[in-house]
């Protein structure tokens, strides 16, 4: 409930303001507003909105009346007038001045409480208007008594104690105690009488902030060991007997479930059938070979014949696969353009740069080129939480309340612990410090490769490289059975296997599109060419001889012609037979080459699909890196980052006797036991899931305004959008992950849990707080004794010097328990107990303060109050 208290007093009451300021600095009072009123506030320049001071935690700031009361949902406003009586300044506010503050505007709907607190500074008969109709009037009994049963001694016997003792009474009447939201006059209607009751005030403030802080720290502490979840039946979930095996099994289920959505099977490669070379084709091959053989180029004929299959593949595609600047070369070779070992991001970018034709933007074999991996991360998040908080994850075959893993590092190794490895030296390609994370399988593999090359060098840094290799292997072995590193290794192995598939497909295409002629086959072609040349020469010689015989007419021309035809036919048949017999291997190769024309499109399609998979795997690995970073940051402080600033030490203050703030204490073992009870209540099965929901609400803190607008208008939950988000720099997922690492988990889950614990602390006595009295001989007593002492206080007398002798009767000076105002309140372990003992309302004529002041008691004109107040304080 919103409520405000405004204290109004004349200049003579500044010492009380000083005491209230000290109590505020000591943490004993709520914030309040102070207005120093003149004799005629209605004629002042600030009459529309009186200037004021706001006091909070001992700090003074300038404000106005309107700023103090213009509060949303203001329910109650207390206007408390401090009325000095028996004060030499005689500057109490007039009735018109008090009515001026009654008439100031406040927000509609707020109730007003008007109180006049009369403060007797002495028993001198200085004129004063005591009770006023329309106000709740009360006079403080002028005493600084510590206990209700102690005799009341007038406070003017010790004038320095007056401001502090009066401040305690004023604080209660104004409702300024932190543990209470009530004041004695809140439920009383202003009377029309001028009678005034007297009141004794006793305050016991139990400040258990230190104890509560220690208990809160123990309840909310999430260190290496997570709390044992509690079932709905109240029993604790037992830890798993073999957490390493469970994590391996869970990771294996995740792998089996999601591998088909990441890596696709390529098309089947058709195998060549048997084929017979026909006579006509053999003649064509023979003639083409013969022409090449006669000009001395038989090997060129072979290359041309074997290269004929290239016509089935576009030249641009061939260059993309085998070209000098081909991105496929980066994928297969793993070497960046600058000669350094390519990172997985460089290889992924190379896969994006490959263009093997249409199909990248369209669906292929029922699978889109750009795939949604949200199911992977949803299972990873839910499964990781389920391992620690015993909740269910059906997709990963984890049952609810079956067990839990006590050590959170088994799921996500800490970033400030064994979850990272740093290389601070310049080794090999590393010119700057390198930070390896336990889940980053691909970067660890690349770093090992760089270090292995550096270890093989003959220089002084080789020993350091070998040392780092050994340490990385040991560090990796410690983390290899943990959940996130296992998933990272799975994704990394998928990435590497896809690269190997691309390399194998490229080699197969190279064998088809760029066949090599080995030396033996080349020699056979040259040998065949010589044989055919020899047969041709022999045939030419026979034809020449036949020509000479015919020219000499040794044979007839008819015989010569027939003989030459027979010679040519014999030469042709002999050469063809020799060609067929010696080119069996060539015929086999040509047969296979023609048949493999069927394989080239299938291999090209397989290569395209593998490169698309590698591209998608690179995106998936980038998303995994961001989600792993988020999950690790969340598990490091799942209840949110608490206030790491040290609480400001409150200055010590000389408290009035009526206000006691004993130092409370409790045994550390009792705090531990109480914390165990509270943790069993708040850390139930599934508590991490509830904490993650609160964590999600802070994600928009890290996003740009445009991204926040998109999130709010998307029509689905922010987490669902992030699960399918890319991990590019500046993306929603990247910004959330980076913001979590930089600022920690911004969540109010810890405060919400502690609020529930505080409610239980209010309802149950989990801790027996004790204190030691200053005069108790060092004996510890329960704080409940303080309450019983106030609640059981008996009748007592107020300081009767403020009453006329004739009015000092039991009815006017005795406080009766039946008229006492008792209240207690507080939050958590801290509490306030207040006792206000009141007399019946006493007639104004019964007091020693007359309505008119005798001449001998009137102050001299222009007389100022001798008050010790800072000169530089501006009101």
Structural overview:
The chain has 875 residues and is an alpha/beta fold. 44% of the residues lie in helices and 11% in strands. The protein has 27 helices and 18 strands. Strand 13 (770-772) and strand 14 form a beta hairpin. The protein starts with a strand and ends in a 37-residue tail after the last strand. Mean pLDDT is 83; it is low at 309-314, 358-368 and 855-875.
Provide a concise account of the structure shown.
With 875 residues, the protein is α/β, with parallel strands linked by helices. Helices cover 44% and strands 11% of the residues.
Question: Tags for this entry?
Answer:
875 residues; rod-shaped; 11% strand; 27 helices; alpha/beta
Could you report the average pLDDT, rounded to the nearest whole number? 83
SS element count, helices? 27
Choose one word for the global shape.
rod-shaped
Share of β-strand residues: 5-15%
What Rg do the Cα atoms give? 49 Å
Binned, the helix content reads 40-55%
For the termini, the CA-CA separation is 30 Å
**Count of DSSP strands:** 18
Note poorly predicted spans. 309-314, 358-368, 855-875
Report the sheet with the most strands, covering strand number, pairing sense and barrel closure. Answer: 11 strands, mixed
Q: Which structural category do the helix and sheet elements fall into?
A: alpha/beta
List the helices and strands and how they pair.
Elements: E1 2-9, H1 14-25, E2 32-36, E3 51-56, E4 59-64, H2 65-69, E5 74-85, H3 95-102, E6 111-120, E7 136-140, H4 162-173, E8 198-206, H5 209-220, H6 243-262, H7 279-294, H8 298-306, H9 315-322, H10 327-333, H11 344-353, H12 374-389, E9 420-423, E10 434-437, H13 441-455, H14 462-479, H15 483-513, H16 519-551, H17 557-582, H18 584-595, H19 599-636, E11 659-660, E12 664-665, H20 668-682, H21 687-696, H22 705-713, H23 718-723, H24 732-743, H25 749-763, E13 770-772, E14 780-782, H26 784-791, E15 796-797, H27 810-813, E16 814-815, E17 821-827, E18 830-838
Parallel strand pairs: 1-2, 1-5, 5-6, 6-7, 7-8, 8-11
Antiparallel strand pairs: 2-3, 3-4, 8-18, 9-10, 12-13, 13-14, 15-16, 17-18
């Amino acid at each position: 409930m919103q409520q405000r208290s405004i204290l109004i007093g004349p200049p003579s009451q500044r010492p009380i303001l000083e005491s209230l300021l000290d109590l505020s600095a000591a943490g004993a009072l709520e914030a309040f507003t102070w207005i120093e009123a003149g004799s005629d506030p209605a004629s002042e320049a600030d009459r529309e909105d009186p200037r004021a001071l706001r006091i909070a935690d001992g700090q003074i700031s300038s404000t106005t009346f309107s700023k103090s009361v213009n509060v949303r949902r203001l329910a109650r406003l207390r206007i408390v007038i401090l009325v000095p009586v028996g004060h030499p300044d005689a500057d109490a506010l007039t009735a018109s001045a008090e009515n001026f503050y009654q008439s100031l505007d406040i927000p509609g709907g707020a109730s007003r409480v008007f109180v006049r607190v009369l403060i007797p500074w002495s028993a001198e008969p200085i004129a004063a208007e005591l009770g006023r109709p329309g106000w709740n009037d009360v006079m403080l009994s002028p005493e600084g008594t510590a206990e209700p049963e102690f005799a009341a001694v007038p406070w003017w016997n010790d004038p320095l104690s007056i401001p502090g003792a009066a401040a305690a009474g004023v604080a209660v009447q104004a409702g300024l105690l932190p543990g209470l939201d009530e004041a004695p006059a809140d439920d009383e209607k202003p009377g029309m009488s001028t009678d005034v009751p007297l009141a004794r005030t006793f305050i016991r403030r139990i400040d258990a902030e230190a104890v509560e802080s220690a208990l809160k720290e123990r309840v909310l502490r999430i260190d290496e060991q997570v709390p044992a979840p509690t079932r709905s039946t109240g029993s604790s979930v037992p830890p798993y007997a073999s957490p390493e095996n469970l994590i391996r099994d869970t990771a294996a289920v995740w792998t089996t479930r999601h591998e088909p959505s990441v890596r696709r099977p390529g098309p089947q490669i058709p195998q060549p059938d048997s084929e017979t070379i026909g006579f006509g084709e053999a003649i064509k091959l023979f003639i083409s070979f013969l022409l090449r053989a006669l000009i001395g180029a038989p090997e060129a004929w072979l290359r041309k014949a074997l290269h004929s299959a290239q016509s089935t593949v576009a030249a641009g595609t061939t260059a993309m696969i085998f070209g000098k600047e081909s991105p496929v070369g980066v994928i297969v070779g793993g070497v960046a353009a600058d000669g350094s070992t390519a990172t997985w991001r460089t290889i992924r970018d190379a896969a994006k740069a490959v263009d093997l034709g249409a199909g990248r933007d369209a669906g292929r074999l029922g699978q889109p080129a750009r795939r949604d991996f949200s199911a992977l991360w949803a299972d990873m998040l839910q499964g990781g939480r389920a391992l620690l908080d015993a909740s269910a994850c059906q997709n990963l075959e984890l049952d609810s309340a079956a067990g839990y893993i006590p050590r959170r590092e088994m799921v996500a190794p800490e970033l400030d612990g064994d979850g990272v490895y740093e290389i601070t030296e310049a080794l090999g390609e590393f010119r700057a410090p390198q930070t390896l994370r336990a889940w980053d399988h691909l970067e660890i593999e690349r770093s090992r490769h760089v270090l292995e090359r550096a270890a093989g060098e003959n220089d002084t840094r080789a020993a350091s490289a070998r040392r780092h290799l050994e340490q990385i292997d040991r560090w990796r072995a410690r983390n290899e059975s943990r959940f996130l590193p296992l998933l990272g290794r799975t994704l990394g192995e998928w990435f590497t296997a896809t690269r190997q598939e691309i390399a194998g497909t490229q080699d197969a295409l190279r064998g088809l599109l760029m066949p090599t002629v080995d030396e033996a086959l080349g020699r056979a072609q040259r040998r065949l060419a010589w044989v055919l040349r020899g047969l041709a020469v022999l045939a030419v010689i026979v034809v020449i001889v036949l020509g000479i015989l015919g020219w000499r007419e040794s044979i007839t021309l008819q015989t010569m012609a027939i003989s030459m035809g027979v010679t040519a036919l014999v030469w042709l048949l002999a050469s063809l037979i020799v060609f067929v017999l010696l080119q069996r291997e060539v015929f086999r190769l040509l047969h296979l080459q023609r048949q493999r024309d069927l394989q080239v499109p299938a291999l090209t399609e397989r290569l395209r699909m593998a490169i698309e998979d590698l591209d998608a795997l690179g995106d998936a690995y980038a998303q995994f890196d961001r989600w792993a970073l988020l999950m690790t940051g969340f598990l490091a402080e799942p209840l949110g980052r608490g206030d790491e600033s040290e609480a400001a030490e409150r200055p010590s203050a000389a408290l009035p006797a009526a206000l006691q703030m004993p130092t409370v204490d409790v045994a550390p073992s009792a705090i531990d036991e109480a914390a165990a009870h509270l943790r069993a209540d708040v850390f139930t099965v599934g508590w991490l899931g509830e904490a993650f929901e609160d964590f999600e609400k802070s994600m928009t803190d890290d996003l740009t305004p445009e991204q926040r607008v998109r999130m709010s208008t998307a029509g689905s939950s922010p987490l669902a959008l992030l699960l399918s988000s890319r991990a590019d720099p500046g993306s929603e997922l990247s910004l959330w992950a980076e913001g979590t690492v930089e600022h920690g988990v911004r969540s109010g889950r810890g405060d919400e849990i502690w609020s529930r614990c505080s409610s239980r602390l209010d309802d149950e006595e989990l801790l027996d707080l004790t204190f030691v009295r200053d005069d108790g001989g060092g004996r510890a007593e329960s704080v409940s004794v303080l309450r019983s002492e106030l609640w059981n206080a008996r009748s007592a007398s107020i300081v009767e010097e403020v009453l006329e002798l004739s009015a000092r009767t039991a009815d006017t000076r005795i406080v009766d328990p039946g008229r006492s105002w008792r209240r207690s309140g507080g939050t958590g372990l801290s509490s306030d107990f207040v006792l206000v003992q009141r007399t019946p309302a006493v007639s104004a004529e019964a007091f020693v303060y007359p309505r008119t002041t005798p001449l001998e008691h009137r102050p001299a004109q222009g007389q100022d109050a001798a008050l010790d107040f800072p000169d530089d304080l501006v009101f």
